[in-house]
């Protein structure tokens, strides 16, 4: 039921019809008997500024931000957190006292997904892809003190430039940035051991790898028969394989990984844990993870 007191959370993007977030969050609010509702809003590229101003005027409590606004929205915000600043992208907004604050929770969501099965410290990690999601995950991995991070991408130049960005930005002094109000990360201990290459370098990189994270859209819904970035011939049983594509839940890469008894982590976990972080930002309460995961599974299967 919606009341005069109901707090509104939403997601802005274009397209937005495919989003599973309304099902995940509305199930969570219902389970916790909270007076909140989560609504999808289609916002075209040229309407972003008006959407943020309008959200403030409508006293909206929070928003998720998705394609094509994740980078551009930074220009419209009053504040953002340290990870959003490093990554240069925001996926969550909170409105308080007429001011907006942006967060990037994709990064921590991805890491919590993998932490369900192992501790990341001192691990050798290989990321395939060098787009927005890879950037968020790589920054967080650098902070988590992995031993080695190898970035491989179809365009090897893009992997190289992402590694350059991370090394440069993590060694800079952010303390004087006027929009940052929560410098909680100690950058001084970070010992960066990064490598980069093209997709041809993947077989070699996987030999000593503990974790493989595929951030490409290969194998996504409607393209489930794609050839995965890695087949069973180059994976091993001690490998943890995380495909961040969440529809289908078991992608072509995860099917290959299963053939060698590697540990599989579905992309649904990243979606779930970034959602849990958002829930806490908006409501101050812990998210009901089981309820949210069940709602996501049901929505994806439909
Ligand atoms: P993006 O910025 O467009 O980056 C895509 C990356 O994949 C690029 O590095 C691109 O390589 C590579 N790529 C694309 N098609 C490829 C192909 N056929 N073969 C090899 N490499 C290919 O996209 P993104 O925002 O990072 O998102 C990537 C995927 O992650 C999407 O499927 C998205 O749905 C998913 N995602 C999941 C979650 C979650 O919560 N689970 C969160 C965010 C994103 P080039 O640089 O060479 O073009």
TrEMBL record:
Residues annotated as binding shikimate: 19-21, 66, 91, 106, 246, 274
Domain of life (superkingdom): Archaea
Residues engaged in binding NADP(+): 129-133, 244, 267
SDH C-terminal domain location: 267-297
InterPro entries found in the cross-reference section: Aminoacid_DH-like_N_sf, NAD(P)-bd_dom_sf, SDH_C, Shikimate_DH, Shikimate_DH-bd_N, Shikimate_DH_fam, Shikm_DH/Glu-tRNA_Rdtase
HAMAP family, sorted: Shikimate_DH_AroE
Self-association and partners: Homodimer.
The protein, known as: Shikimate dehydrogenase (NADP(+))
Organism: Candidatus Methanobinarius endosymbioticus
């Amino acid at each position: 039921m919606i009341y005069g007191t109901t707090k509104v959370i939403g997601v802005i993007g274009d397209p937005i019809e495919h989003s599973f977030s309304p099902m995940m969050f509305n199930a969570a609010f219902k389970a916790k008997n909270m007076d909140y509702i989560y609504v999808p809003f289609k916002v075209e590229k040229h309407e972003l500024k008006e959407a943020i101003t309008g959200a403030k005027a409508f006293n909206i409590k929070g928003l998720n931000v998705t394609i094509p606004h994740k980078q551009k929205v930074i220009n419209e915000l009053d504040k953002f957190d340290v990870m959003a600043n490093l990554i240069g992208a925001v996926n969550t907004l909170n409105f308080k006292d007429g001011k907006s604050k942006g967060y990037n929770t994709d990064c921590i969501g991805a890491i919590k997904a993998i932490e369900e099965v192992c501790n990341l410290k001192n691990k050798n990690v290989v990321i395939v892809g060098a787009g927005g999601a890879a950037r968020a995950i790589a920054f967080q991995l650098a902070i988590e003190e992995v031993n080695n991070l190898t970035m491989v991408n179809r365009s090897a130049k893009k992997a190289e430039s992402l590694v350059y960005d991370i090394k440069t930005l993590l060694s800079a002094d952010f303390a004087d940035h006027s929009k940052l109000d929560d410098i909680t990360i100690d950058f001084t201990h970070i010992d960066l051991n990064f490598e980069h290459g093209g997709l041809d370098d993947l077989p070699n990189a996987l030999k000593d790898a503990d974790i493989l994270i595929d951030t490409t859209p290969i194998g996504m819904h409607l393209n489930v028969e794609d050839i995965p970035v890695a087949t069973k011939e180059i994976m091993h049983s001690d490998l943890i394989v995380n495909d961040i594509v969440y529809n289908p839940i078991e992608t072509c890469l995860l099917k290959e990984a299963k053939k060698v008894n590697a540990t599989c982590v579905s992309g649904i976990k990243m979606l779930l844990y970034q959602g849990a972080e958002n829930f806490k930002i908006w409501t101050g309460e812990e998210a009901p993870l089981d309820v949210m995961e069940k709602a996501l599974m049901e929505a994806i299967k439909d």
